[in-house]
Amino acid sequence: MEETAAMKTKVSDLEAGLHHCIVSLEVEPPSMMSDLFNIYEEEREKVKEMASKIERSDKEINDLRNMVVDLQTKVVELLGVHRKIYQL
Q: Which UniProt keywords apply (predicted)?
């Protein structure tokens, strides 16, 4: 959970950086615009990668939760079998 929160914070930071690049593009002279656009593209790719990692992390967390539920169900079933054996 902490890792997911940290990734979400990083994505927010990268989005803020992208916004800064866009604002800079409107103010800077044309010669710097291509450099800023390249930086913008690089940052945009980083945001996409981070978003993908967050999605994968969320999916992994959900998968782990499902595994825990399955294990809990199996433990309850085994306890039931155990009781039946001792009742015999």
A: Coiled coil
Rounded to two decimals, the pTM is 0.47
- Give the residue carrying structure tokens 């015999």: 88
Residue pointed to by tokens 């450099």? 35
The count of C-alpha atoms lying within 13 angstroms of the C-alpha of 70, restricted to the half-sphere facing its C-beta, is 6
Q: Which two tokens stand for residue 11?
A: 């994505």
Cα–Cα distance for residue pair 45/10, rounded to 1 Å: 13
pLDDT in tens, 26-56: 665 666 667 777 888 888 888 888 888 888 8
Amino acid (one-letter) located at 60: E
Separation of alpha carbons 83 and 30, rounded Å: 79
